[in-house]
Amino acid sequence: MEPLVANVQNLWSTSQRPTAETQLWHKIVSSSSNNIFSSPDLETWGESSNDIRLTSNTEICLTHDVKMQLLNIKRDLVRNECNCSKSDGQLRDTCDQHYFCANSNDIFEQGLYLYLDKYQPTYPILHVPTFNPRAVQALLLFTICMIGLAFVKTEEAVRFICHIYPALLDEVYKRIISTTPEISNPAAALSELILAHHMLFLVVVTEGNICPTKSEMLYRYTLTAAQNLGLFSSDIAQISDALFSSVPKDHRRWSSWSRVESMKNLIIGLILYDCSLSGIFSMSPIISTNTLKLALPCDFDLYSARSAHDWIQLVDQGSSLAAPMMRLSCNEICLPDLPCQVHISCLYGLISAILVRLTANYHRLIVDSDLVQEDKHRYVPWQIYTLDRRAAMTTQLVVQFIQLYDTILRNSNPNCVVIWHNLCLLLTADIRLLERAAGREGPEAMQTARNAIRLWAQTPAARRACLHAAQIFHTLSHWKPMDGTGFQPVRCLFHSALVLALYTLVSPVVKDVQDSNGFDLAKTDIDWKAVGEEGLTDLPQDGAAQLRTDNPTVNFIRCGGPIILCGKTYFTGARHARRLVLDFASLLDEVGRHWMAKYTRLLYKIHDTLVDVKMGGNMGQKLPYI
């Protein structure tokens, strides 16, 4: 019998060809390029690669030849002549290309510098010590410069980006669809994937409002291509360790290692874009988290080492090359142990992976399902997720995250703190329902949604949602320019405004609001490990759970209380709901970039629709989509 079964097994087995992802990682490790941004046929160093040592971003300059290549791309993309009038020796600022005309001598160096100064520290895909602009494909370098210019807070710069965006999008889209990820040499798709990744930043900047159909198509194709290449399911640590064993411990190993680290950051960036763009286009994320394997970046000091000598010295002093791994499947949750301090990209990777799964659950079980009657679950998402084993695990994952990384999160970039609070917000409040109640789908849908929110506002989950919304407000109130502004925090702040304002509008009147010992929801010393699953699980039926404890946070979730935010008390009703909206709008003005201004405008419009139910009346026109 055994020989017979063995024959069956042999016939059943598939061919043992190297998989696309194995070929890709082998190509990355063994490549002759010093950087994943570099093209081997363009890489011509002026000095020996072993002697490369950069001291700062300011030393990376563009040669005259490179500038001319970029200028030619600009001319190819925008063929119409500039209509800036020079007859009087002055440039008119009415032309969409005025910003380029007024700064044509150094605009590309300005863009590259701002990319390295503003974008790269938060999304460190580019390994700066081995970066050589002369070795980068011209279209990719041009897109990098446009990303830098997107950080310029002037009307002319915004107009120029919007003017060139359609042609640049069209060119990038043609490049990415011309490369099939399943080809025998999958590494051929890598440079186009990096190009598309950078273009997706500009899609986020414009929020898909320019060329929305093609922008969404680029997003879908890029994430699908990356998934088909196995970027979200490969055991990078195992593959790279096997490949590194054949690379000597010298400059070649440093280059190989840095290319793998760049790829890890590229993968994290793609997951972040999936989070943001799925929200912008109101769709379920592309990435499947059923078999997600995410290798996190190593110590950032290693990644920022300025030479092979410095890198080897850090390794010899004990810096670990082992990659922490996060694993998500239908039956498994594995969060890695992390050191006390990690780079922001490491936390972004973990949080955004959880956010992708949470958003996918929301679309699968709430948006796209007719099987669940939301009113029976009082419009609380986590209660609906308990009906599905995989979705229920996500709630546990969010709680487990803070249990493991509470100290790390406290000392991290505030944008990471905000996104974790947003995870809890998405478990405790139906954001789509809140948007409908704010007027997204017109006056009739708004009134229906506000009636539903009145039921939600009586739950512990709603009170926990208010708590996280207040924490988001407090965290971003202490935001500093050096913290940077990602895409997620601004949307989180907007949704927090809806949570608190609509809760205040419809919640029951709270007695004893003059209590001098009122609990400020924005206090900074909340022990989230002690709060645990409060408001995220069903309470016992014996009533004992309603008893007050010595933890004021738990007391608020269980029993409610006045909304006190940064020392201000907001009472039930439309007047105080409108005040909350104005406070959030003012904060959005401070922390949001120019291309996020629509969220502030929306809040001011929503402010006018917040009236007490007894007032009735016409609630105005349908609000624009968010």
UniProtKB/TrEMBL annotation:
Alphabetical list of Pfam families matching this protein: Fungal_trans
For this UniProt record, give its keywords in alphabetical order, as a comma-separated list. Answer: Metal-binding, Nucleus, Transcription, Transcription regulation, Zinc
- Any one biological process term the GO annotation gives: DNA-templated transcription
- Please name the CDD domains in this protein's record: fungal_TF_MHR
Task: Tell me where in this chain the Xylanolytic transcriptional activator regulatory domain is found.
Answer: 112-307
A molecular function annotated in GO for this UniProt entry is: zinc ion binding
Q: Which InterPro entries match?
A: XnlR_reg_dom (IPR007219)
Q: Does the keyword Transferase apply?
A: no
Q: Which PANTHER family does the entry mention?
A: TRANSCRIPTION FACTOR WITH C2H2 AND ZN(2)-CYS(6) DNA BINDING DOMAIN (EUROFUNG), TRANSCRIPTION FACTOR WITH C2H2 AND ZN(2)-CYS(6) DNA BINDING DOMAIN (EUROFUNG)-RELATED-RELATED
> What name does UniProt use for this protein?
Xylanolytic transcriptional activator regulatory domain-containing protein
